[in-house]
Amino acid sequence: MIIDRAEVIVTSPDRNFVTLKITTSDGVTGLGDATLNGRELAVVAYLKEHVVPLLIGADPSRIEDTWQFLYRGAYWRRGPVTMASIAAVDMALWDIKGKTAGMPVHELLGGASREGLLAYGHASGKELPELFDSVREHLDEGYRAIRIQSGVPGLNAIYGIASQSAAAGGGEARYDHEPARRGALPVQEDWDTRAYLRHLPGVFEAVRNEFGPELPLLHDGHHRMTPIQAAKLGKSLEPYDLFWLEDCTPAESQEALRLVRQHTTTPLAIGEIFNTIWDFQGLIREQLIDYVRGAVTHMGGITPLKKTMDYAAMYQIRSGFHGPTDISPVGMAAQAHLGLAIHNFGIQEYMQHGARTNEVFRQSYTWENGLLHPGTRPGLGVELDADQAGKYPYERAYLPYNRLADGTIHDW
């Protein structure tokens, strides 16, 4: 059996997705997610022009060897475009291997380590009443852990608030607050760190008073604080027992997490924009984080992310894989199989895709009683409906960007 065809499929049902479909000479197909939010066509070109020609005639069973060839053989390593492309190949080959073996991928990774994956949803609101309603909606949907994002007085639109994002982008509110807006140019949002630091502790106090001490609460700082500001926030949130504080400071500076750790016991999660184990190496070795936020789609696939989690296990660090709607159902399924198999699973971010996306990507993973499960279908358990995909051509879309009150560009 050899790889006979490899197609790059771009579709935009609820947002843009890039999918690699590999077909073997025996007619077995495998899917891989190569979506890079806001830069999708860069990955399409990398796959079509540089990767696909290398796959034709190759042995699809040689997953590790193929991964090493695509990573080391290009000479230019790492980066989101390269690693998303390699990830798509890796996922597709695992999908093929599972179908050939007649097993779901998690069985090939060692079998299930739990009944299902604890997943968290995204509650948000401009003000407390709207936020409380959003929390209740997520509880009604079965979520047992919830991320809390709140508007800040004086700021018109900031990351993570569905109703504000819709107003800034000119569209209707979406439950998943998909931040990438379709259009020729990105949308500008505003930011004031001091106002945010003053406001947020009161939000968590109110949420705890309303919903009690047992509900796991998470928060995403989205890289917008300096290290000392992040340390201040982590310390001020300690009374409210957060499950984690995510991306509290820009992830490029790993030394910054040392300063944050010195000042707070709030658990820290980071790494959704990381691309390789090298980005996590120092943070794991020095135990500067508690959760690995890497994504199968952006870290080169199942193969390297499992190695990263094996390394993290040596330091009692758990997974918290990135799972917004810019991870396609293929990528979500791959992460769910990996999360089900590894021992040091922590929690899975899970934003449910829209109806059009679910028509394009037919899934076998399930959501019951607050637990996500990848299903028992051989391979990854996701199939792409080409006819449905063809109804939704690519539309240019950008993530927003931030400016401070004086006009300075700031981290979004």
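(ticket continues) Second input and output from the same batch:
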Amino acid sequence: MAEDEMSEKQLNEAIESLCVSKAEEFRLIGYEQVTGRDIWECVSQKYEKEGFPPLYQLVNDILSLKATQFMNYMTISAFRGSRF
């Protein structure tokens, strides 16, 4: 492995950190119950059919997630019974 490549563990930690950061952002605007795991579930659900995208797309999907997109995901998940 080259020096500039991340290990799988480092990559997972970086993605987790991004999700936690986005959850903190949402808490600042009033969505107080959001967790990093919630963010990851929202973002990653679209990869179930398409497969995982390149890292830059994954990072972009997390950082560009809007509160309205997240709330739509949570609402649909609640109706389907897959959450709560």
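Agent notes: The chain is about 70% helix and 0% strand. The mean pLDDT is 90. Closing as not reproducible unless the customer responds.
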